Amino acid sequence: MTYELLTPESAPGYIEERLPGLVDTAALDVREVGDGNLNLVFVCQDTAGRGVVLKQALPYVRLVGPSWPFTPERAVAEARAYAEHGAFAAEFIPDLHGFDPERYVLALEDLSDHRVWRGALTDGERHEGAAARMGRYVARVAFHTSLFGLPADVVKARAAASISPDLCEITEDLVLTEPFSGAERNWFQDELAGAAASLQTAEIQAAAGELKYAFMTRAEALIHGDLHTGSVMVRADGSTKAFDSEFCFYGPVAFDLALLWANFVVTLARDAVLGRDEHGAWVATLFEESWDAFEDEFRALWPGVVDPRVYNEPFLERWLAEVRRDAAGFAATEAARRIVGLAHVDDIESLASAERAAAGRGVIGVVRRLLLDRPETAAEVSAVAREEVARG
Ligand code: SR1
Ligand code: MG
After folding, report:
1. What percentage of residues in the chain have a pLDDT greater than 70?
2. Which of 184, 215, 192 has the alpha carbon at shortest distance from 333?
3. Distance, CA 11 to ligand 2 centroid (Å)?
4. pLDDT tens-digit profile of 68-93?
5. Are 97 and 19 in contact (CB under 8 A)?
6. pTM of the full predicted structure?
7. Whose alpha carbon is nearest atom 8 of ligand 1?
8. 244 Cα to the center of ligand 1, angstroms
9. Do 87 and 22 meet the contact criterion of CB atoms below 8 Å apart?
10. Which residues contact 314 (CB under 8 A, 6 or more apart)?
11. Neighbours of ion ligand 2 (CB under 5 A)
């Protein structure tokens, strides 16, 4: 597979040709800012303050390098997510200005006046209402792309068109298997060897197996698929945007909530070892804030359910209970991989060695409790998280 990769030097000409009028290409400031695991990201701004972001899928995993080839078709999936989610959740995602399927380039709204939520949390910032906004985003996706909001034939066609085996395989391996099986590409501090081994008991493996099976078989909605705090941008006025939806596919709704919760757990562990009690107490409220907003939004949409013959009120209660319980389980798998898997996160990695080990132990304690006890409410997940990170 060959296609031309963008560079800071070639970006202005590309915009001139493909996206005329969006910015003034005569004096364009172009910065490659990609700090994720996969893609090139160029922020392009003109002197009048107009900007556009070009995101190009590399044909390999950036985190590892060309030795791990990876389909750039993920850019097609991300464009699909923005188009579909934009129909009912435009305020929670960036505008898509254009998509180039030949060079796998997305032209996106410049969100330079926002910052990545993970960085904000790591720095101890509070962005009030961001968790609720993401809860509402997940609810709208859950309703409007599923059998609840669309006719069955439409859902079947969209689910088939959105199948994304290579991207899903990454999650199945890195999140739902390898923290519990061990793998060559896992890595962790020497001090965490015992904690890592404690995730490889038959009971924990069976719990992970149950969640992996749910991930691979429960095609509920066109979920974001990678909604961790590094996939959310926040701004002081409350604007909150989910981006990087390249892992979207028809999967379990609980998974999107779970990735938020897992990454609240890691930031909570950071707060605990740094003695940031006030920030930690606030982070601990985000589990319920996101769940309550999800539930309120979903219940508000429910009267519009397409097939109310059996999708009735008692069904709704059961479905919500299942989502809550599965969110706790999926959150455990995501939190585990941030400590012992391939892709770690700054919340933990930027700590000094002793604090880092204590935070890692705390997170693994949370993982074990969530997998073995499977709490049924966001409040219980938060309580478990606070207890275990304090133990570190
Ligand atoms: C090999 S890719 C590792 C991770 O980066 C992405 O952001 C996803 O979270 C994936 O699991
Ligand atoms: Mg990403």
Report:
1. 100
2. 215
3. 22
4. 999 999 999 999 999 999 999 999 99
5. yes
6. 0.97
7. 226
8. 10
9. no
10. none
11. 36, 244
